[in-house]
Amino acid sequence: xxxxAVTTWSLEQTAPTDLLPADAPEGDVRIVRSEVPSPEFSRFxxxxxxxxxxxxxxxxxxxxxxxxxxxRPGVETWVAYDRGTPAGYVELQAQDDGVVEIVYFGxxxxxxxxxxxxHLLSYGTxxxxxxxxxxxxxxxxxxxxxxxxxxxxxxxxxxxxxxGFKLFDTKVEEEPEVAAPGPWPxxxxx
Length: 190
What we know:
32% strand; Acyl_CoA_acyltransferase; seven-stranded mixed beta sheet; GNAT family N-acetyltransferase; acyltransferase activity, transferring groups other than amino-acyl groups; Aminopeptidase; alpha+beta; GNAT_dom; transferase
């Protein structure tokens, strides 16, 4: 197995006023919180959005691991729908001291390049800033952060920067090169 160099960039916002929202796309695009913890639905989103860009860390999770994660206070999944079809999602996770991480964000391949991503990231970031309003007992959000890497889509970093995120760390590590798993074997042409 060969290794590849993967660059990971960490970005943050330290005030709600840092957010620079994108315009909403044309058409019937809605963003809805998935309020019922559903391992099946969350795994579908994860595998479908990340299948062509080598998201593999959660593919081995059991049903119980998904359920446990989704039931944690301050974990939220916000899903973008285009005319009723899931187009992408943003997953938030409350951390200590008023920090919220955008753990996962992305669009299914068929919905990329249609201005949905900027809108979804804007909406998800705003929900990170007001997360404590929906979760009594959580500290008010003081910082929202995320990471992206060189394996992500070519427009990911630009989208984060245009939404007002600022770079605070860069790391380069060697990782084993793995084939894009797709949402199911053979989903993407070789």
